[in-house]
Write a structure and sequence with these properties.
Elements lengths: L11 E8 L6 H5 L12 H14 L8 E7 L4 E7 L7 E9 L2 E13 L19 E11 L2 E10 L9 E12 L11 E14 L7 E15 L7 E15 L1 H7 L5 E14 L5 E5 L9
Parallel strand pairs: 1-3
Antiparallel strand pairs: 2-3, 4-5, 5-6, 6-7, 7-8, 8-9, 9-10, 10-11, 11-12, 12-13
């Protein structure tokens, strides 16, 4: 028996479609796909596209599939990416017992949020979803003595053309002595912080690397602190830069990953003793004032 194989011209991609996405908008999936109409057919690009879709976390990874439909007449191929929506939002409810008190935590994360549909009444099912944005809210307390809450928002494709992820966050943590506010020993320790960061995908050494730049700000408000303190800052601003590679993708490619970065803090500090009384201005070890 003789088998003859003739290698023809490499096919080009004609159409790329997505089916099965009932909540997620098409553009959220299409921007992660590495196969474009007019490109040469590439199995590696299809595999990379499947991995990127899985990492979104919106679909059942067991059912994600690609259906290639060849067109021998014009030497092209149509690609159909098949997905199945799954729950991606998270709710956190927890409680604990410590130091003779109950500590409660509540949080919720919407991982496929859509801010542009907030004012669209028809999009609330029960919340506007489909644009791949992330919104998280969390609070923790054991009563008047301690309360902490935070909120964060991430737009993974700022502007819609490139994977530039904009993240905004805000948080506040407050500890108080369990005393009346007019008591001479009453005190508190409060931190209010916020950050803005932008993460961009690099092309060198390859597109598995990302660059993250952030500005972090913290404001401290202290009166006869209930926590043992030796150093505090009235306010602190930090400029941070970090670069890293996608560890998950590199494990699949059997290639080494990497991470690195540096911080440049700016702060006005005040030394405190254990009782919370101010002693003298100063900078903590390792801080480099830039303003």
């Amino acid at each position: 028996m003789e088998i003859r194989i003739y290698e023809g011209e490499q096919a080009r991609i004609n159409r790329v479609t997505v089916t099965g996405n009932t909540r997620t908008n098409d553009h959220v999936i299409m921007r992660e796909i590495r196969t474009r109409p007019g490109q040469l057919f590439s199995r590696s690009a299809i595999i990379r596209s499947q991995r990127e879709i899985i990492q979104l976390g919106f679909f059942d990874q067991e059912t994600i599939d690609v259906n290639p439909v060849p067109n021998p007449a014009d030497n092209t191929v149509d690609l159909e990416y098949i997905v199945e929506e799954t729950s991606s939002d998270q709710i956190e409810l927890s409680g604990g017992w410590g130091a003779n008190r109950i500590i409660g935590t509540v949080g919720i994360s919407f991982n496929n949020f859509s801010t542009r549909n907030i004012f669209n009444r028809d999009a609330w099912r029960p919340l506007p979803t489909g644009d791949g944005q992330r919104l998280s809210l969390r609070a923790q307390t054991y009563g008047r003595g301690y309360i902490s809450y935070s909120a964060s928002f991430t737009e993974p494709w700022l502007g819609g053309n490139k994977p530039n992820a904009l993240s905004l966050s805000f948080y506040q943590t407050t500890h108080r002595r369990n005393l009346a506010s007019d008591h001479p020993d009453y005190g508190y320790y409060s931190i209010i912080g916020s950050s803005v960061s932008l993460m961009s995908r690099l092309t060198v050494p390859d597109d598995y690397f990302f660059l993250r730049q952030a500005v972090n700000y913290q404001h401290y408000d202290i009166l006869n602190s209930p926590i043992r303190l030796y150093l505090t800052t009235e306010h602190q601003t930090t400029l941070a830069t970090a670069w890293y590679s996608d560890v998950t993708q590199r494990m699949l490619r059997s290639s080494p990953g990497g991470i690195g970065g540096f911080n440049v803090p700016s702060a006005h500090s005040t030394l405190f003793n254990a009782g919370g009384q101010g002693l003298q201005p100063g900078y903590s070890t390792g801080e480099v004032p830039v303003a």
